[in-house]
Design goal:
Elements lengths: L5 E3 L4 H17 L3 E2 L8 H11 L5 H13 L3 H5 L3 E7 L5 H12 L3 E8 L2 H10 L6 E7 L2 H8 L6 E6 L9 H14 L5 E7 L4 H8 L5 H17 L8 E8 L4 E8 L3 E5 L4 E5 L4 E8 L3 H10 L2 E8 L5 E8 L5
The structure holds S-adenosylmethionine.
Length: 331
């Protein structure tokens, strides 16, 4: 991907930093304390996620890759287009995108690929994975999902296939998922497609291993968020005073990631001119990863304005990539 095809959707770094500071203030002033997982992905965070995704304990990436490898050859015929705009939300390093794009190119379909990711590092890595070639144009957009979609409005004209892979949807709770999918629906045209990855409910030990990998990359990803606050907002978190803890909440149907303060800690954040106190063993909530049953996926689909075309699953039924189509819109 060359630089002219890379757009920073939100050009205002100062505004982004202020939003980060405001979100940190809200999260650390709450009881219980929390931080938003969307801030995991600075350069170090994106590299750590890439390491997690290649780790044997993290079954999600290789399982979804297996699904896309065996089922994406059917996509070009199912969609029946000769040119398509593929838009990926939270594309990461682009290894899964490359697989899907190749199936369309092999079927003679021209592809305009637009990758949206909040992390510049992720878009850099994707640019190294996916190279332009005949019938394929590649555009990297650095920004939030909906900033990217707004930027693309009027810049795309073909049938759209939106990819939302990696069970990124699982980071939202049920209310947020519905709001997200409905908002996505309103930015698409009738008959556009969405291929969306859902991690399924399964044996709890398998889940816990995936979110506490034996190489401690997930711990490091979580601690990196505190390091990011130290770097970007002038915080003085002592990282050695926190322990990573991942647990399955069966009532919510979600993995939850925490950092637990091992002892009392006072953290001063210069950008906020504010001190925050942690008591010994106080939890800091960082991430939800909701897990799904096939029936829950269907009901989410129906409730948000799509119809299901096909569910693609792996041999062990660990994960589903569900192909949805936007149903007729009013007006
Ligand atoms: C868990 S990784 C998944 C990457 C890839 N989709 C996959 O399946 O391997 C999440 C990706 O989404 C990006 N991301 C997270 N929140 C985002 C947001 N609000 N807007 C845009 N990108 C976001 C992160 O930077 C990261 O690259």
């Amino acid at each position: 991907m060359n630089v002219s095809q890379l757009a920073q959707v939100n050009n205002d770094d100062q505004q982004e930093l202020e939003q980060f500071a405001a979100d940190v203030f809200t999260g650390l002033s709450s009881d219980p304390k929390y931080l938003s997982a969307k801030y995991f992905y600075d350069d170090t965070g994106s590299e750590l996620f890439q390491a997690i995704s290649q780790h044997e304990d993290y079954y999600l990436t290789r399982t979804e890759y297996e699904i896309l490898d065996s089922h994406s050859p059917y996509l070009p015929a199912l969609l029946g287009e000769d040119e398509i705009d593929i838009i990926e939300l939270g594309a990461g390093d682009g290894h899964k995108s490359e697989l899907v794009i190749n199936r369309f190119l092999e079927a003679g379909v021209k592809v305009n690929f637009h990758a949206i990711d909040i992390s510049e590092k992720a878009i850099d890595m994707l640019g190294e994975t996916i190279l332009e070639r005949p019938n394929l144009s590649v555009h990297g957009l650095i920004g939030d999902y909906f900033e990217g979609l707004r930027f693309l409005k009027g810049r795309t004209s073909k049938r759209q296939l939106v990819l939302f892979l990696g069970s990124n949807i699982g980071n939202f709770n049920h209310t947020e998922s519905k709001a997200f999918l409905r908002r996505l629906w309103s930015s698409l045209n009738a008959d556009d497609y969405l291929l969306i990855g859902f991690d399924l409910k399964k044996n709890i030990n398998e889940l816990i291993n995936a979110y506490s990998d034996s190489s401690n990359y997930t711990r490091d990803l979580n601690l990196n968020l505190l390091a990011r606050i130290n770097r970007e907002l002038g915080g003085n978190f002592d990282l050695s005073g926190f322990q990573h803890y991942a647990v399955y909440n069966p009532e919510l149907g979600a993995m939850e990631s925490y950092l637990l303060a091992l002892g009392e800690q006072k953290v001063f954040i210069e950008a906020l001119q504010q001190e925050f106190e942690f008591e010994a063993f106080e939890p800091l909530h960082l991430e939800y990863s909701f897990k799904f049953l096939p029936a829950e996926i269907d009901s989410l689909c129906k409730q948000t304005g799509y119809k299901r075309i096909e569910n693609f699953s792996d041999k062990q039924d660990r994960f589903i990539d569900s192909l949805w189509q936007v149903t007729l819109r009013n007006g």
